[in-house]
Amino acid sequence: MEPELEPSGMDAAYAGAVARELVEWAEVRGQVGRVDEEIAVYEEVGRLFGDAAEPEVRAVVATALANKEEALGKPTLAAY
């Protein structure tokens, strides 16, 4: 079971680090062909941090959304 993350109460540096780690984890999921999981993690980054006011965190959310768009064009393992 995945841990529940809620950014309320996180300082900006910690929130940015968590968001970056999630994006990196999503990229790894995509590299091993688990595109559905990759997309889900990018969506979670948007859900958790999409309302952040800090520019550093918003930049990571923008990266996650751009990566999600790219991942939507990848074939999934189910396609094989």
Protein described:
This protein has 80 residues and is mostly helical. The protein has one domain (12-72). It is built from three helices and no strands. α1 (12-31) packs parallel to α3 and α2 runs antiparallel to α3 (55-71). The protein starts with 11 loop residues before the first helix and ends in a 9-residue tail after the last helix. The relative contact order is 0.19.
Average pLDDT confidence is 87
Q: What share of residues is helical? A: 55-70%
Q: What is the rounded distance between the termini?
A: 27 Å
Number of strands: 0
Secondary-structure content class: mainly alpha
Task: Report the major sheet.
Answer: none
Q: Low-confidence parts lasting 5 or more residues at pLDDT below 50?
A: none
Tell me the Rg in angstroms.
13 Å
Order of helices and strands: HHH
Which percent range describes the beta-strand content? under 5%
Q: How does the overall form come out from the CA principal axes?
A: elongated
In brief, what are we looking at here?
This protein is mainly alpha-helical. Helix content is 65%, strand content 0%.
Which helices and strands appear, and what pairs or packs with what?
Elements: H1 12-31, H2 35-49, H3 55-71
Helix pairs in contact: 1-2, 1-3, 2-3
Features:
80 residues, mainly alpha, 3 helices, 65% helix
